Amino acid sequence: MQNLSNILTKVAAAVLAVVLATGCIFEKECPVDCTKDVMVLLKLSVDDLQTKADETEAESMLKTVRIYAYDQVGRQIGYADDATATDGSFHMVLTVPEGQETLTADFYAVANEGAMTNLSYTAGGATGNAFKTAMTLEELHAALFAVSSANDSEFLEENGIPMCGYIIDKTLNLNVGTQHLDTVGDHAPGFTLNDEIALVLNRTLAKVAVYAAEVGSATGTTTAPKITIDGISVSNVISNALVIGGTTPTATVDGGYAMLSSSASVTNTIVDEAAASVYQDDANYTPVAMAYFAENAAGSNNWLTADAAGAGMVLNITYTAGGTQKTQPIYMPAIQRNHFYKVLCRITAGGEMLLDLEVLEWNDATMQTV
User: Fold this and answer.
1) Residue pLDDT, tens place only, 37-48
2) Where do runs of H (alpha helix) occur along the chain?
């Protein structure tokens, strides 16, 4: 997969293509019927959580899909969506030059757009708020990298998590394939290329989960918890793209958002000076809260200090230990889409907080069906 600069170069080429005179640009070679339709098979996979124990069905679910194809000057040459899927596979019709042996194309996928509300993007001097069947490459690129809101309490169950993926510079052999006399899905009989397009979808949000444990004489659980997590306020987030455990967040008096709706008792203990593998295993902690966030390029490289600009996400964790309530700010690193941030808090009886912060990629790809 190529980097963003290559994509932006192609977006510029797409803008130039719009300025070209309408009609067939291959007219010098074939003034009549200069294009033909071929089909190509598309397969989708979703980057699942690295740790299988943390995976939920909703986080890897595909509810809706749109797939777009463009040639090297940015013309849209194909489109497919979940309505055209057969057993989880898609056959996309591509309109390609007649008589050309190979074609280099770019493929983009957008999934679960029902989980995107308030989508807004600007391309070619105009604004848009939805994905469409026909989109210029500039429009699609702007939409894919736009910040959109996640839906309300039915965000996961009804709509899934917003995802996107792309393949750049895929070379297709237009003369190698199979001629079908019967229909393929809802497509008429035709020529299907041997080339297959495998698209990996990435979530456009990040997942943040907070866990807590009491530092004790053994690692396990306790029936007499001594520590409670009383609240978690999150600041420096893009508020219109925030989902707290699948529900709309509530604003707090400090201008942040409440990640925890009620206090939680810490029922797990971890022995002091345990091995790092013990500290880093969330199974040894009490799950406290979880949320999905939009990406934030600002962040700190030390959880105890803010980033220079003061623009990175901050988790303010309020807890009670030994009868005393404290609030500990945790300065998060840059928040990247399709990443999972585990905030593992160990709290002593005297109220000191120790922290392990794990940043994982959702990168265990498995095939999905619609």
Assistant:
1) 888 888 887 765
2) 4-19, 137-144, 276-279
